[in-house]
């Protein structure tokens, strides 16, 4: 149902972690995600600890889902001396190509405990359905133009 758009994003994330660089608007950091099917919907969960819901932007254009978020440093006064800073700051982004079988008009988004969860219903046209078989040319009946059996009385 999903397709990764850039196979090198994971490598970029590792390099950013090792070098200690933060994401910028022109080159955002990658945010980790899980994606799975649950019943009649597809679920995508993004890890965004420490990000306020107001700092999250979710867009869908055609079948491209884009999630961007920004985590800023906590406001500190002049008496604070930073001893260790390992939590990543800056801009985070992820793009996911959604399949045509998903209903992008009805995406639901929830944010709880630092996890952004998107639920995308599977489109009605993608669900399995029964197809009836028409027949023609049997005794006592005539076939219609659309191939369905008509009984003459």
UniProtKB/TrEMBL annotation:
Highest taxon in the source lineage: Bacteria
Give the residue ranges for region: Disordered: 129-153
Quick check: keyword Magnesium in the entry?
no
Q: Where is the composition biased (Low complexity)?
A: 131-144
Q: Write down the Pfam families for this protein, in alphabetical order.
A: HSP20 (PF00011)
Tell me the ranges covered by the SHSP domain, including all copies.
24-136
Q: What keywords appear on the UniProt entry?
A: Plasmid
What SUPFAM superfamilies does this protein map onto? HSP20-like chaperones
Q: Which InterPro entries match?
A: A-crystallin/Hsp20_dom (IPR002068), HSP20-like_chaperone (IPR008978), Small_HSP (IPR031107)
Q: Which family does it belong to?
A: Belongs to the small heat shock protein (HSP20) family.
Protein name per the record:
Hsp20/alpha crystallin family protein
Specify the species: Streptomyces goshikiensis
